[in-house]
Specification:
mainly alpha; 9 helices; 2 domains
Length: about 200
């Protein structure tokens, strides 16, 4: 075999070996999500958790029922409201705990991780305040102490102020990372709907 032919064969063998050893790792490298993909996945988790946390307001209309509680004049209705308030408090508390324990994707930059920690804290504190507001109203139901009713109102408003703050920070972070997305009307509408839902009815 000529020298040039031997060199060609050696090159082919070498290339084959390189491809053989590198191929198993290629799908892992190619399949690694980008920071944008990780951000959207994490954002979706946040939105879904907020949806779950706000269910007592949307399905049970807890805030409306509390405002109308003075009109209740039978034991069954009062007991039903008490049970609903207790369940709502549990949902708010569970949501707060979920935000507190939520992990931040490793692919985020240091700055994004710090910002996301603050966002998680807003939601953690917001839903915790809502949980506490339910506790205050339960106390008011038992002893009709005006101070408990006032404490309920303050904590309730505080909770939604914090949740709105978290949504505002999330919007600001997303706008800074992916400004092109805010040309999408659907994105703006989604954020508006979430924020408008976090404002209690008077």
């Amino acid at each position: 075999m000529k020298k040039s032919q031997r060199l060609c064969v050696s090159t082919i063998i070498y290339a084959t070996l390189v491809l053989f050893f590198l191929t198993p790792f290629y799908p892992v490298l190619a399949g690694k999500p980008s920071q944008e993909e990780q951000f959207h996945a994490h954002e979706s988790i946040i939105y879904n958790l907020i949806d779950h946390g706000l269910e007592p307001l949307e399905k049970q209309k807890i805030h409306i029922r509390i405002e109308q509680s003075a009109k209740l004049n039978n034991a069954k209705s009062i007991d039903n409201l008490s049970a609903t308030i207790s369940t709502a408090g549990e949902v708010f508390g569970e949501t707060s705990d979920s935000f507190s324990g939520m992990k931040i994707p490793d692919g985020f930059s240091h700055e994004t991780r710090d910002a996301m920690k603050e966002i998680h804290l807003f939601f953690t504190m917001g839903f915790k305040a809502l949980e506490q507001s339910m506790g205050y109203f339960s106390q008011y139901q038992k002893n009709h102490d005006p101070a408990m009713r006032a404490a309920y109102s303050l904590k309730y408003q505080e909770g939604f102020t914090l949740i709105d703050g978290g949504l505002t920070c999330l919007e600001t972070l997303k706008r800074g990372l992916f400004p092109e997305e805010f040309k999408n009307v659907w994105v703006k509408e989604r954020l508006y709907n979430l924020r408008s839902r976090s404002i209690p009815n008077k």
